């Protein structure tokens, strides 16, 4: 199986930025697509900042500059450029109506052989594949944030995903310097079916005034050895993304244990989305 050279990335939010940067840093040509020039310009600046920041910790004088990395990424609002992509990673907001439209466009534009990877935290891969004409070539690829620094990816096999697609996806991840754990398709998969419940319950604890923000996080870090507490993790992921994900789980399982905490809804309505907005459970001086 030959090397994958050109990869399309749809969605230039936090995850799309990380995936694009990682791909460019591992020698891929990237086509990053989103709906507006403003979003793409923000993505370009974030990648520049991230690469520059990484450079502070690298002693290798041959490390590529931000311009070297950005020159490997084509930023566009036009899906047409994805006709050159050998593989596409989709990172659109966790809203089914949006994803459905994106896959209709991808399916019409991309070559028949192109595989699609849904970087989703909760939506069924089988459901996503059902709106394409290439169900065997659709796979879940749940990257962790920040993407360039996380060596493991949760890969999800949909009902129709072929072994060939799994091998192609594994090869691309290996080219990115990553390994994967393959799980079967179910809303939320493994990581977020557990994590979203934990974060949602931590927010209920805060709402019920059982403990403070700092106390909740400190218990998880000192008692269980977690690097981050659940509320810090929520800020890193984005509270809007947390809400979308828990709503998908609630809708998918019709189980009251996935009922979103009212405080979470209130914070999202208030624009307190975490690191990317500058304030969530904690305040940040340099929002993404």
Automatic annotation (TrEMBL):
The record marks 142 as: Important for catalytic activity. GO terms for biological process: fatty acid metabolic process. It is an enzyme of class 1 (oxidoreductase). Its EC number is 1.1.1.157. Residues 6-185 form the 3-hydroxyacyl-CoA dehydrogenase NAD binding domain. Residues 188-284 form the 3-hydroxyacyl-CoA dehydrogenase C-terminal domain. The keyword Metal-binding does not apply. It holds the Pfam family 3HCDH. SUPFAM superfamilies: 6-phosphogluconate dehydrogenase C-terminal domain-like, NAD(P)-binding Rossmann-fold domains. Pathway: Lipid metabolism; butanoate metabolism. GO terms for molecular function: 3-hydroxybutyryl-CoA dehydrogenase activity; NAD+ binding. The keyword Oxidoreductase applies. NAD(+) binds at residues 11-16, 34, 94, 99, 121, 145, 276. Keywords: NAD, Oxidoreductase. Belongs to the 3-hydroxyacyl-CoA dehydrogenase family. This is 3-hydroxyacyl-CoA dehydrogenase, NAD-binding. The lineage of its organism: Bacteria, Bacillati, Cyanobacteriota, Cyanophyceae, Nostocales.
């Amino acid at each position: 199986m030959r090397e994958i050279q050109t990869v399309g990335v749809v969605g230039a939010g936090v995850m799309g930025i990380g995936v694009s940067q990682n791909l460019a840093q591992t020698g891929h040509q990237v086509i990053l697509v989103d709906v507006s020039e403003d979003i793409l310009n923000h993505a370009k600046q974030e990648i520049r900042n991230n690469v520059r920041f990484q450079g502070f910790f690298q002693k290798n004088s041959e490390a590529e500059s931000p311009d070297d990395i950005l020159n490997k990424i084509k930023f566009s609002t036009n899906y047409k450029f994805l006709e050159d992509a050998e593989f596409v990673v989709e990172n659109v907001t966790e809203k089914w109506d949006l994803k459905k439209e994106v896959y209709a466009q991808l399916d019409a534009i991309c070559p028949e052989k192109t595989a699609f990877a849904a970087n989703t935290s909760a939506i069924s891969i089988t459901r996503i594949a059902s709106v394409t004409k290439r169900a065997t070539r659709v796979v879940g690829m749940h990257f962790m944030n920040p993407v360039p620094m996380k060596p493991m990816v949760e890969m999800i096999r949909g009902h129709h995903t072929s072994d060939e697609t799994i091998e192609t996806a594994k090869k691309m991840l290996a080219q990115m310097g990553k390994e994967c754990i393959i799980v079967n398709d179910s809303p939320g998969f493994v990581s977020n079916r557990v994590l979203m419940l934990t974060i949602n319950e931590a927010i209920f604890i805060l709402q019920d005034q059982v403990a403070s923000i700092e106390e909740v996080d400190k218990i998880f870090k000192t008692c269980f050895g977690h690097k981050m507490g659940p509320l810090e993790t929520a800020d890193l992921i984005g509270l809007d993304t947390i809400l979308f994900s828990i709503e998908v789980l609630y809708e998918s399982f019709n189980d009251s244990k996935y009922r979103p905490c009212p405080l979470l809804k209130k914070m999202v309505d208030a624009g307190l989305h975490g690191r990317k907005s500058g304030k969530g459970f904690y305040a940040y001086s340099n929002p993404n």
